[in-house]
Amino acid sequence: MSTPTGIGTLTVRPLDPLRDAELLHSWVTHPKAAYWMMQDAALQDVEREYMRIAAHEHHDAYLGLHEGRPAFLMEKYDPRYVELVGLYDPEPGDVGMHFLVAPTDRPIHGFTRAVITTVMDELFADPHTRRVVVEPDVSNKAVHALNEAVGFVAEREIDKPEKRALLSFCTRAQFLAARGVAV
């Protein structure tokens, strides 16, 4: 899927864990990616993690491109089997999501908002997706604001093994309303 935005075209392709590992390593170990929790990961750790995701039946990773150049990472997962097992009652059509914007020396105003919108467009392109679920760190105020801007509603804080998280949901109707699209 290709999404034209005010900042250029964003596209998403399946991640190749071996080919993309070096690039991902530079992103996930960057200080701006602290919430990704891979700051001390070696290249082999990143390869191994994304090979694990590639082999998982209920977890997928994608590389996001801006004008054809790598610019963000997107993961989607089935919360019945990954990340949120036992932490909430999933509904049919729930899809979990993570995204990470690549660090840059030349930030583009509105880029991260365009990325999360593209990620949501990609998830809702599947007619089976009824609701997107996220669980960012409770202290990640910047991502909470972004999530809210695209229609997420926080439900409650939950304790995951690696963090205290803010469980939030966004239905297709909430996403379209946040974009100003009549439902």
State the secondary-structure class: alpha+beta
Principal-axes geometry comes out as globular
Oligomer: single chain
Strand order of the largest sheet: 1-2-3-4-5-6-8-7
Distance between the amino and carboxyl termini: 22 Å
Question: How would you describe the overall organization of this protein?
Answer:
It holds the Pfam family Acetyltransf_8. One of its GO terms (molecular function) is acyltransferase activity. Pathway: Siderophore biosynthesis; mycobactin biosynthesis. This protein is an alpha+beta fold and 183 residues long. It has five helices and eight strands; from the N terminus they run E-E-H-H-E-E-E-H-E-H-E-E-H. Strands 1-2-3-4-5-6-8-7 form an eight-stranded mixed sheet, with helices on both faces. Helix 1 crosses helix 2. The longest helix is centred in the middle third of the chain and has 14 residues. The radius of gyration is 16 Å and the shape is globular. The mean pLDDT is 92.
